[in-house]
Amino acid sequence: MKHDNKLFPKELVMESLKQSFVKLNPKLMIKNPVMFTVEIGTAVMLIVALYALFTGNREQGSAAYNIAVFVILFLTVLFANFAEAIAEARGKAQAESLRKTREETPAKKVELIGEIFTNEIKIVSSATLRKGDIFVCDPGDIIPADGEIVQGLASIDESAITGESAPVIREAGGDKSSVVGGTKVLSDHIKVRVSTEPGESFLDKMIALVEGASRQKTPNEIALTILLASFTLVFIIVCVTLKPFADYAQTPITIAAFISLFVCLIPTTIGGLLSAIGIAGMDRALRANVITKSGKAVETAGDIDVLLLDKTGTITIGNRKATNFYATNGISSEEFIRLCALSSLSDETPEGKSIVELAGKDIVNKLSVSGASMVKFTAETRSSGIDLPDGNRIRKGAYDAIKRLAEREGFSFPAETLAKVEAISNDGGTPLVVSLNSKVQGVIELQDIIKPGISERFDRLRKMGVKTVMVTGDNPLTAKYIANKAGVDDFIAEAKPEDKMSYIRKEQNEGRLVAMMGDGTNDAPALAQADVGVAMNSGTQAAKEAGNMVDLDNDPTKLIEIVEIGKQLLMTRGTLTTFSIANDVAKYFAIVPALFVASIPALQGINIMKLHSPETAILSAVIFNAIIIPMLIPLALRGVAYKPIGASALLRRNLLIYGVGGIIAPFIGIKLIDMLIALFM
Amino acid sequence: MTTEISGVIATYGITLLLAWPLSRYIVKVFRGERTWSDFMAPLERLFFKISGINPKEEMDWKQHMKALLTINLVWFVYAFFALMFQDKLPLNPDGNPGQSADLAFNTAISFVVNCNLQHYSGETGVTYFTQLFVLAFLQFVSAATGIAALIVVFKAMKEKTTTRLGNFWDIFLKTITRILLPLSIVIALIFIFNGMPASFAGKDTVVTMQGDTINVSRGPVAGFVAIKHLGTNGGGFFGANSAHPLENPNYVTWMTEMVAQVVIPIAMVFALGMFIQRKKFAYVIFGIMTIGMIGLLIPSMQAEIAGNPAIAHMGIQQATGAMEGKEVRFGAAATGYWSTVTTIISTGSVCGWHDSTMPMTGLMQLLGMMLNCLYGGCGVGILNYYIYIIIAVFISGLMVGRTPEFMGHKLEAREVKIAAIITLLSPFLILAGTALSSWVLTHHPDANWAVKPTAWLNNPGYHGFSEMLYEYTSANANNGSGFEGLGDGNVFWNVSTGFVLILGRFLPIIGPVAIAGLMASKKYIPESAGTLKTDSLTFGVMTFAVIVILTALSYFPALALGPIAEYFSL
Q1: Membrane spanning segments where (chain A) (predicted)?
Q2: Domains within chain A, CATH numbers bracketed
Q3: Does the model's ipTM exceed the 0.85 cut?
Q4: pLDDT at B78 over 90
C-alpha cells in the first residue's frame, strides 16, 4: 500500500477546516475542559467587543483592541479544533484507502436450501453477504468479504492490503485459512465462509475509533485530562481573585485583560492537541499496517515489559536448513551425500528440500526414485525415508530413533558419529542421522538461519526495558544456542501452546505486561491473555478475535514497531504538557506588568521583555498562545521521536528540549510579536 | 558580619550532625527494633491496657485516617472549652480572663493543626493551665500526628503489595514517648541552664535603672519552648515569641531553638531513605530541599545585611544591617536565617519582626510558606513534597513513554485526581482568603462585625496587602508566624483563618496517605530499563522544576501586588 506521508494533503485540510467550525458546538467542546473554558472566554469577549463597538464606551478599551482579542481567542479555539479534525481526517483517509479495496464486488454465493448448502451458485453483491454465508472464488476473482476457507487451497495476491507483491497460499483447515476481502485469488478454487457481518470488520471498527464515534479516552489520557483540568482551575482561582486584589490596589483591569491572562495561563497548547495526539497514535499504527481495536491497546504497547516471539519466521528465516553432511568413517562422503539426497527426493518438508538443495544439482540429477516407496515421518518412528526397488532401506531421523533402529539389528552406533551428533546439538543445530539398512552412515547438520539485523533490534528493545522471549519447539539445548546467538533474553523450549499461556500468566503475576504475536487457533487463549495480542491477518478468525490488534503485513517483527508507537504516544503527551506549562512563565512576565503598570509604575521592573505597551504585551501573549497550537500540530501528528537511551537520559533530553525550551521559546516569540505589533500601534 | 554568618553556618552544620544519628534512631523505633528507649515500653503497655487498644492490629490507610481525624476532633473540643473557661480553671496566678468563642475556636484549631497562629498574647490571653495542659499538650500531639501520618506513608512506600500499614495508635504513641518527649527534656534542660524561667509563679515586679516599676511575666517557659521548636509548632509562650528575652535569652538558646526546629524535619528525610531502603532517593530529596532553602536564604540574608535602602537614601549608615524590629543580641544575618528557616519549616516562631524585614525577605518568607515542603513541618513537609513527586512522576513518566510508575506501582487517574486536588487546595485557600479580606476591606471598610476593616492594617498599600496575604499563607501552611501589623484578633480573622487552618492541615495529610495507601494495594511492578528512576538527579531537578513553576504560576500576580511592588518602590 502506498503511504501518503504528506502531513497536510490539500483535500484533508479543506475538510478539516469545515470540521473546525462544526466542532465549535459546545456539546462537543465540553469533552475537552481546557478548550471549553476558552470557548466561553471567547463568547464573553464577543459581547464585550460588540458592546464597545456599538456604545462607543471606552471603559473596556477601544473597540478595535477588544475585537482583536476576540478574533485571536476565536482562532485559538479553531486551531485546537483543526488539530483534532486533521488528525481524524488523516486517520480516516488512511482507513478509507484500505476500505476502498472492499468496494462492492460481485460475490458467487452458494445458495442455502433449508439447512443444506447446495452447489447452486448465485451472483450477488458483496454488500448482501452475511456472517455464515458461503461463497466460492475462482482464479481472477476479488474476494468479496472477510472469511475462512472451508474447502480448497488457493494462492492469493494480498498486495492491496499488505503492499507485498508475492502471493501467499491459503488453505482450508489449519492456521492459514483466513482470507481478507479485497484481495485477489490467483489460482485454484476455494469455498469461503463469511466471518463478519458487513460493517463490523476490524477495519470498520478502526474507522469508527478514529472518527470519534466510539473513541474512548485511554486511562493515561483521563489522568492527564484531570491534571490539566486542575491546572485550569488553579488559573480560574488566580484570575478571579485578581479582581478584589486589583480593587484593593485601585487598579482597574479590563475584561479583555482578564480573559487574555486566563487563556494564556491555562494549558491550551496541550489541551488543544491532546485528542489529536491520541488519534495520531492510532493513525501511526494504521500506517504501520496494524489495525488496533482500541486506543488503549496502542498505549499499553508502550508499557510492554515482555515480548513473546516465535522463533520461526521472527528470529530465524523460515525453517531449519541442512548445512553440512558428515559421513561415518569408512563411507565416502560422496556416497553419503547421494544417500541423503535419495532419501529426501520425495520428501516435501522444508528440511527435506534443503537437503536436496545442499546436495547440489550434479548429484541430484543422476538420481532416480522410480519404483521406490516413500516412508513418511510418523511420531512413532520419528524417522522418514525411502525403500528402494533394490531392497535398500534408507532412513533419516532423530539420533535416538536411528540408534534404536540400529541396535535392534545388532549394529552399534559409531563413536565418531555420536561425537558429531553432540557437537551439532551443542552448536544449536539439529542432527539428522542417516542409516542404510539400519546401519548408521552419517549425520546431516540442520541449522537455523538467524535473520540479519535481528540482534540489533533486540538490543534496542533491551534498552527500552523490554525483555524478549523466544518461543520454540526445539529442545532446550538448541533453543539456548539460538537464543544466545540472536540475543534474546529468555526462551521457552519444546513449547506447547499451553506453555505460552503459563509463561504469560507467570510474568503477569509478577507485575509485567506481556505482548505476543500469534496466528493459530491454539494461540487464541494466549493472545487473549496477553496485554497486547497481535494477530496476523493471515491467521484464523479465532486468533484475530482474541487479540487486540491485527497486523495486515503478517510480519512477526511488527511488535517492535508497535511498542515504539505506544511509547511515542505517551511521550508526545508528556512533552507537550511540559512545554505548555513552561510557556506560562514568559506569559506571566508579559501580562502581569501590563495589568498593573498603569497604576503601579514600579512594576515596570518585572517587564523584563521591555514590551512596548500594556495592549501590545497582552495581544502578543495571546497571539503567541494561539499560533503555537498550529505550529505544534506536525509534532503532535508525527509524535516525539523515541530514542532507546534509557529512561533517565530520555527524561533529561526531553526536559532540556521541551522544558527549558518551553521556558525560553515564548520569551523570544512574544518579544518578536510585540515588536511587530508595535509597528502598527 | 563574618561572625554572624559563621554562626549561621555552624548552626546548620550542628543540625545536620544531629539529624543523622536521630534518623537512624527513628528508623529503629518504627521498625520495632531494640533501642535504648525501650524503658518506655511498660508505660506504653499501660496506656494500651487502660485504653483497650490492641497495638498489634494492622490498619489500612482509611482506618489510619479515621483514627487520626477522630482523635484530632477530640483534642479540638477539649481545647476549645478549656480555653473559653480557663478563668475558672486552676494555675491562673495573673487572673487572665477566658477567651471569646471565636478566639478560642481559632486558638484551639491553630494548636491542633500544628500551626500556632496566635491571635492573643501569651502574657494575657492564656493561663498557666492552658499553656501547659492545652497548648503544650497539643504541641506534642500535633507534631506526633504529622510524623505518624508520614510513617504510614513510609510503610506504604516500602511494601510491595499490602493494605496493612501498621497501627496508628502504636506509631503515634511511640512518636511521643520515644522521640518528642526525651528530646524535649534534653532541650528544656539546656534552656533552663541558660536562664529561661520554669516556674508557676505569677508576674514579678522589677524596678528598672530609670526607676520605673514594671511587671515581668513568668511561667513554665522552658519546657514549652522546647516542644514549641522540636515539634515545629512555633507558638510563643509570650506574645513576642522568641524575640522575648525570657523566651530566647542568649545566642546559645538561639542556636538550640534553631537546631531543635530543623532537626526532626531533616532527620525524617534521611529516615525515609533508610526505612524504604532507597537511600539515594532520600539524598536527592534532601539535596533539592537544601538547594531550595539556600535559594530563599541568600536573598533574605543579603537584604537584611545590606540594610534598608530608604534609610540609606537619608544618608544614614547601617553597619549592622536592617535593625528595625530585630534583637541586638542576634543581629540582622541571624534573624534573616531564622526567618527563612521558620517559614520553610512550618514552625512560625520569630526572633525578630517579619513585618519589619525588607520586602525581598518578606517575599522569601511568603515563598517559603507557599512551597511548604523544603524540609517542612514535622512529617507534613515530606507529605507535601510527596504530592509534588506524584505530579512530577506523572509528567515525567509520560515523557519517557511509559505509564507513570512510582515505587513499583502504577500511577493512575485516581491518584492523579487526589494529587491534583491537593495541589489546587493551597492556591485556593490562600488566594480566596486574601481576596475575601481585600474585598471586605475595599467594599465594606466600616463593617462593624469585622471590627472596622479600615483599622486592620497598620500599613497602607503594598505592605498592607502583604500583611493579609501573609496571614492566609501562614494559616494554610500551618506555619503560624505573622507578618503582624495586622489587626487579626477579631471575628473575621479568627473564623476565616480558622477554616483555612483546618482545610490546609488535614487534606494535605489525607491526600498523600490516600495516594500511598492506594498505590501500595496495587500490583507490584519490578523495575526495568524503561522505568523512570525516581532516585536520579534528573528526576530531582524535575521535581524541583514542578515545585517552582507551580508555585510561581499560582502566586505570581498576588506577590507582584505585595512584596514585589514594594521591592521596586523602595
Answers
A1: 33-53, 65-83, 222-243, 255-277, 588-606, 618-637, 657-680
A2: 10-94+207-288+565-678 (no CATH), 106-141+146-195 (2.70.150.10), 303-317+451-552 (3.40.50.1000), 321-447 (3.40.1110.10)
A3: yes
A4: yes
Q: With CB atoms and an 8 Å threshold, state whether B564 touches A245.
A: no
Is residue A1 predicted with pLDDT exceeding 50?
no
* Mean of pLDDT over chain B: 92
User: Which of B373, B343, B402 lies closest to B512 in space, CA to CA?
Assistant: B373
Is B402 close to A302, i.e. CB distance below 8 A?
A: yes
Indicate whether B151 belongs to any domain: yes
Of A213 and A246, which is predicted with more confidence?
Answer: A246
Which chain B residues are Cβ-neighbours of A244 within 8 angstroms?
435-436, 438-439, 442
Q: Are residues B398 and B515 in the same domain?
A: yes
The phi-psi region of residue A599 (left if phi > 0; otherwise alpha if psi is between -120 and 50; otherwise beta) is alpha
* Contacting residues for B270 by C-beta, under 8 A, at least 6 apart: B19, B20, B23, B24, B282, B286
A-chain residues near B439 (CB < 8 A):
244, 247
Tell me if A258 is assigned to a ligand binding site: no
Q: B472 is in which domain, residue-wise?
A: 380-569
Give domain status of residue B283, yes or no. no
Q: Are A183 and A160 in contact (CB under 8 A)?
A: yes
pLDDT in tens, B11-24: 999 999 999 999 99
Q: Which residue has the higher pLDDT, B341 or A60?
A: B341
**Residue B130, CB-side half-sphere exposure with 13 Å CA sphere:** 33
Chain B CB within 8 Å of residue A584 CB: yes
State residue A2's pLDDT score: 40
Contact A238 B525 (CB under 8 A): no
Say if B454 is an interface residue toward chain A (CB within 8 Å): no
Is A553 marked active-site?
Answer: no
Mean per-residue pLDDT, A298-311: 86
Lowest-pLDDT range, A3-12, A538-547, B330-339?
A: A3-12
Share of chain A above pLDDT 90, in %: 22
Mean pLDDT of B255-267: 95
Cα dihedral value B134, B135, B137, B141, nearest 10: 120
Beta carbon pairs, A and B, within 8 Å:
213
In a domain, B315, yes or no: no
Which residues from A are below 8 Å from B394, CB to CB? Answer: 223-224, 227
CB-based contact B4:B251 (threshold 8 Å): no
Contact call for residues B363 and B337 (beta carbons, < 8 A): no
Burial category of A477 from C-beta neighbours within 10 Å (exposed 0-12, middle 13-18, buried 19 and up): middle
- C-alpha cell of A500? 505460552
B80 CB near a chain A CB, below 8 Å? no
- Closest Cα of chain B to A533: distance in Å? 18
A588 has a pLDDT exceeding 60: yes
Q: What percent of chain B has pLDDT over 90?
A: 72
What is the maximum span of chain B, computed from C-alpha positions, in angstroms? 78
A509 confidence band (pLDDT: 50, 70, 90) = confident
Q: What is the DSSP code (8-state) at residue A642? A: P
Q: How high is the pLDDT of residue A112?
A: 72
Cα separation, B209 vs B211, whole angstroms: 5
- Label residue A3 by pLDDT band (50, 70, 90): very low
Q: Which helix (H) or strand (E) holds B541?
A: helix B537-559
Mean pLDDT of chain A: 85
Instruction: Spell out the residues 6+ positions from residue A629 whose beta carbon is closer than 8 angstroms to its own.
Output: A76, A79, A80, A83, A268, A269, A272, A273
Residues B102 and B214 in one domain: yes
Residue B365: which of B335, B394, B387 has the closest Cα?
B335
> Does B540 lie at the interface with A, CB-CB under 8 angstroms?
no
Angle between helices B380-399 and B413-443 (to 10 degrees): 120
Global confidence as pTM: 0.86
Q: Please, what is the Cα angle at B241 between B192 and B203, to 5 degrees?
A: 65
